[in-house]
Amino acid sequence: MTQTVNPADALAIDAGVVERILVGFLREEVRKVGFERVVLGLSGGVDSALSAALAQRALGPENVIPIIMPYRTSSPQSEADARIVADSLGLKPEVVDISPEVDSYFDRYPQADRGRRGNKMARERMAILYDMSSAHDALVVGTSNKTELLLGYGTIHGDMAHALNPLGDLYKTQVWALARHMQLPSDVIEKAPSADLWEGQSDEQELGFQYAVVDVLLYNLVDARRTRAELRAMGFRDDFLDDIGRRVRDSQYKRRPPLIAKLSARTIDREFRYPRDWGR
Amino acid sequence: MTATVPGAAATPQTAPHAAVEEMAADAGVVVVLAQLAPRLGDVASNLGRHLDIIEEARKGGAHLVVFPELSLTGYFLKDLVPDVALHIDAPELEELARATADGLDLVVGTVLESEDARFHNAALYFSGGRLHHVHRKVYLPTYGLFDEQRYFAAGDRFRAFELPLPRAQQHRPWRSGTLVCEDMWHLSAPSLLARQGVDLLLCPSSSPGRGVAHGNALGTAMSYDAMTRTYAQLTTSFLLYCNRVGYEDGVNFWGGSRVVDPEGRVVAEAGDGEELLWHRIDLPSVRRARLAYPLLRDERHDLVDAEIERLRHRRNAEP
Prior knowledge:
Chain A is mainly alpha-helical. Chain A is built from 12 helices and 4 strands.
């Protein structure tokens, strides 16, 4: 990549203000629907660590239930990091090994590629989180950041499924900034991001670009609504702009509820529009 | 696309269309309502389809082709509005203008961006190789499933204009006015055009179907059936209603494009798929309707003006 894009101040956040808003968000939106507790998957990565830290501040450590869900090929370091995060926040993690159920399923489809296997793992974890949600009267908190939501770098009905998400409007570089502000374990912040769905997987390798670069582009494309000509003048190459534009467009379906065929005069979500906080 | 004029099988590529042959060549204007399903947000592809349809219409002997509302862009654009918007001198519009150089006129729907970054839902009338008239949709529905005021600026006028129709060789030019979809739901809009002496109401539309609980037709189709026939009859004018078809985000557009004559009769009607609806309209029919129903002659403009003036004063007097 020969793009010469300057890191933009536009991605800078006042971490104190952001922390206050997100802690308030979790506290209000969880309690207002009659819950005290939340459950979330702790992967050992910075996103889930940050979600856990915000939830811990919002609801108290006794009300945050982290679930560590390794697969047999997951990096042992991931689980170790997840435990470090839980310890540092005073949380008691539960460990559920997803290998038996995932392997049992793919025994029937041994030819399945790693994409299918990775999605299955993500959805297995989702199913466990929703079961834990029921078992512990706890809402499922998401950990998807704005970068991966916009790029569609997530599994629909897998890690993209949750009741509420404090990180969905923070780009990855902003997640790092907030994680540093909240003094999360530095190893967790510094390590290379990975979905850890197969051995040696790395976000930036798989995506083909660095978060530091794509976040500047996404900010200028999505938040600032700059034109193609302006983005080019900022130093972004056409093939990169094409690639990112296509990723955002092609993953739009993942960010929307399923299509409902319109028939009546009042279709759900089309004319029937009540706030999610209806009656709360 | 297939034509549905009775007796017309496949559209011949070079011979005049069957609807054209029914009358002598100098009797009236051959209109084509291009009921198509635009691709949402894909102006290049939609422009190509427009040019293909225009070519087919030209070969069939058409004088005027009417496309639906936002035919170049699709309807539920949301945040795509600024991405698909065209300036009035855009090359895409110049290409459409050139397609009218030899006498085939054109009504096209698009998002028009002004110099000061306002976006209008506009119906453009091209003739003689240039843009002849622009109507910017006045009534932007923002209720139910509609959100147009979030994305569009409203037009501020209903103006009649003469149709050049150079190849149609009329003894006088037709006068016309445009109502885009929701404009039709406001009684004052056709009244203002009627007062300006129109013979033809051009009504491009992107009407989503809804309300299946009543009878055997969609609720929206029944509303447009009533409005199109009533407006044509009360203004003793022809009315060309061109609706689109297809689906966007789960919403179906029901088609049903139609030609209504100056006595309020539906004289041609399309189904619910893509098609070109051909019909010949003529000024003598307008004259006959106005002999039978001299409503425009009898309209009391002085009374209307006086009453409106009185209402204005009363409103101004209110605290």
